[in-house]
Amino acid sequence: MRGAREADPDYTKVTAPALSFITIYDAPYIPADADAALREKIVTRWNEYGNAFQRHKIDHFKRDMKQGQVIELHHVDHADFMRDATFQKFLVREMRKFLLGE
User: Fold this and answer.
1) CA–CA separation, 63 and 52 (whole Å)
2) By residue range, what is the domain housing residue 42?
3) What share of the chain has pLDDT > 90, as a percent?
4) Are 37 and 90 contacting, i.e. CB atoms less than 8 angstroms apart?
5) Residue 85, domain member (yes or no)
6) Is the pLDDT of residue 9 over 80?
7) Cβ neighbour number for residue 65 with a 10 Å cutoff
8) How many domains, the chain?
């Protein structure tokens, strides 16, 4: 988490077009065996920090990347592109659209 907070690229210096696929977590991960206290702690931290942090990173990219485009991915995880052929097709289609300026 510290590394993520400290990583604040200066996108204003990037001149190449950039496409960013961002996995959006709409809720925190809560382990199945978490008790009520841990669940509350995780949800509180998510509401106060996690969700705002991911929005900040997206807004930063959108604001400063001159030729940038963000595609937000909901209801997926980082490994879905490895397992799901339909998702792979979607990603390739979006990359082609970006590269071809469609």
Assistant:
1) 16
2) 18-77
3) 55
4) no
5) no
6) yes
7) 19
8) 1
Is the pLDDT higher at 77 or at 68? 68
Pairing of the two strands 68-74 and 18-24: parallel
User: 32 lies in a domain?
Assistant: yes
CB 68 within 8 A of CB 78: no
CB 73 within 8 A of CB 24: yes
* φ, ψ dihedrals at 68, nearest 5°: -105, 155
In a domain, 50, yes or no: yes
CA dihedral (82, 88, 92, 95) in degrees, to 10, reads -70
Predicted TM-score (pTM) of this structure: 0.74
What is the predicted pLDDT for the residue at 61? 93
Q: What is the pLDDT of residues 27-37, one digit of tens each?
A: 898 999 999 99
